TrEMBL record:
InterPro entries: eIF2B_gamma. One of its GO terms (cellular component) is cytosol. Component of the translation initiation factor 2B (eIF2B) complex which is a heterodecamer of two sets of five different subunits: alpha, beta, gamma, delta and epsilon. Subunits alpha, beta and delta comprise a regulatory subcomplex and subunits epsilon and gamma comprise a catalytic subcomplex. Within the complex, the hexameric regulatory complex resides at the center, with the two heterodimeric catalytic subcomplexes bound on opposite sides. Its main location: cytoplasm. Transmembrane segments: none annotated. This is Nucleotidyl transferase domain-containing protein. It comes from Hibiscus trionum (Flower of an hour). Belongs to the eIF-2B gamma/epsilon subunits family. It comes from the Eukaryota.
C-alpha cells in the first residue's frame, strides 16, 4: 500500500499555530525529527503544508539543505486565512 504523509508546519498567524513544528527542541526544529523519522522509514512521499508563500520558501530552503536524499517532499503554501482542516482538504490533489 502506498501512503503519503502530510506535515502541517504552520506559519505566522493563529490558524495553523497548533502545529509548532518550527519550534527548536534540543537544538533542532521539531520538523527535523519528523522528517528524519520519515527518512528512516518506508514513508518517503511527503507533503509539507506551510502557511503563506514567504514562510514556504524559508521552510523549503531549510528542508533542501538538511534533507538532500531519500525523501520526496512537496512544499505547498496555503493561504493565511484558512484553518488547518481546510488546508488538508486543499492538498488532496497534490
Amino acid at each position: 500500500m502506498d501512503f503519503q504523509l502530510v506535515v502541517l508546519v504552520g506559519g505566522n498567524s493563529r490558524n495553523l499555530t497548533p502545529f509548532v513544528s518550527m519550534v527548536p527542541v534540543v537544538n533542532r526544529l521539531v520538523l527535523y525529527y519528523v522528517l528524519h523519522q520519515m527518512e528512516q522509514s518506508n514513508l518517503k512521499n511527503l507533503v509539507v503544508l506551510v502557511e503563506g508563500k514567504d514562510t514556504s520558501f524559508l521552510v523549503g530552503g531549510w528542508i533542501s539543505k538538511i534533507f538532500t536524499d531519500g525523501l520526496h517532499i512537496v512544499i505547498v503554501a496555503v493561504p493565511k486565512d484558512i484553518r488547518a482542516v481546510k488546508a488538508l482538504t486543499l492538498q488532496k490533489n497534490v
